Amino acid sequence: MNDSAARLDTAADRRDLIILGGGLVGMTLALAAARAGITSHVIDRADPADLTAEGADGRASAISTASWNLFGKIGLAPALSGLGCPIDSIAVTDGMKPGRIDFTPKPEEGTLGRMFANRDLRLALFDAAKDEPNIAWHVKTEAVRRDRGAHGVEVELSDGRVLKASLLVAAEGRQSPTRDEAGFALAKWDYKHRAMVAGLFHEKPHGNTAWEIFYPAGPFALLPLLDDAEGRHRSALVWTVSEKDAAGVVAMSDAMFVNEVERRMHGVLGTISLSAPRMSYPLRFHHAGHVIDERLAVIGDAAHGMHPIAGQGLNLGLRDVGALVEVLREGMRLGLEPGDMELLKRYEKWRSLDSFMVMSVTDGLTRLFGVPGRLPSAVRRLGMGAVQRLPTLKRFFMDEARGMSGTLPELLQG
């Protein structure tokens, strides 16, 4: 991979896009754009070999039905086939008390999504990108100067090279320096919670069911993964704890941690053990009021960061990808430049409402289930029982989980 990356680094021609950030969202954008005939420079300071090394990242991501449609249309499905665990149902419960909701689509509707190891997603993306002539991939370097003007954009890299394009795309993640440099206002707050992430082996099979168990301190999610090569059952854990308790949880021995996790699982998967190293990160919300500026578009976590309660963070970024590629492709067919402001305004209008709605629902659920006490719990379970009995409401929530609601970009449609 390094040889290919070095070969691609020699490309210094002007291209349609300069994409800052070659993570899951940035590289998906580059590949989707390339399939539409749109050229790009992709800049990432990381070494791809480090990102895909065995054990470097034990995290997993839920890929919605709509996002899987995108992967299929840009040619990633063959490489990912057989690597994702289908999510056939989602069980939602308030502390494992009576009144849970079971979301299970009809067989002809397919799954609610698929769980993939982040490493597998990266390997598929990087392998596809390294042989794509429409992508010039610049690794182990970063932007030290970004200039945007009426005639295009210019980026100087830390190794001295200068790249030019029509449009700059910031896909640098939550701490995007390009977004901050552009002065975008952010609605943001700290949940004062921390997500504890780990991989689990467990005694009982998960039956392709994802569990979302809500406790007053925060949601506790069990996400199904494929059995390992030895046939051991596996799931990914995302356990939300209060920031005031986080230091104590982080300091726990593995045995103590497993005991606490097992206690909250109420035996649904039997005895457990750790299958991957534990990680933790703070939970914060941010939403950019604008996602465009002169010859600039912001996508993925650079534009919006949300609570992982519904597993929609990456999927929201992939919806950004689909919308941006569709807008650029249609505009370029009419002879417009990718950096044309009218195209960017269309992208912003399309994405702003959708991302705000998804994030508002996610934030609302986090706050609703975080209210302690018997009365709030009883009210929640009463509402959950109503949803369980009403097919129309269940259909709405399942469509949201599958990413099939709203005005979808063509790349994400079935």
Automatic annotation (TrEMBL):
Query: Which Gene3D superfamilies does the record cross-reference, listed alphabetically?
Result: FAD/NAD(P)-binding domain
Which organism does this sequence originate in? Novosphingobium clariflavum
- Could you confirm whether the keyword Flavoprotein appears in this record? yes
Q: Give residue ranges for domain FAD-binding.
A: 16-352
- Database matches in Pfam families: FAD_binding_3
Q: Which residues form a coiled coil?
A: none
What is this protein's record name?
Answer: UbiH/UbiF/VisC/COQ6 family ubiquinone biosynthesis hydroxylase
Give the family, as the similarity comment puts it: Belongs to the UbiH/COQ6 family.
> SUPFAM superfamilies in the record, alphabetically?
FAD/NAD(P)-binding domain
Keywords on record: FAD, Flavoprotein, Membrane, Monooxygenase, Oxidoreductase, Transmembrane, Transmembrane helix, Ubiquinone
Q: In which pathway does it act?
A: Cofactor biosynthesis; ubiquinone biosynthesis
Looking at the UniProt entry, the stretches that span the membrane are: 17-38
InterPro entries to which the protein is assigned, alphabetical: FAD-bd (IPR002938), FAD/NAD-bd_sf (IPR036188), Ubi_Hdrlase_CS (IPR018168), UbiH/COQ6 (IPR010971), UbiH/COQ6_monooxygenase (IPR051205)
Cofactor(s), names only, from the UniProt record: FAD
- Domain of life of the organism encoding this protein: Bacteria
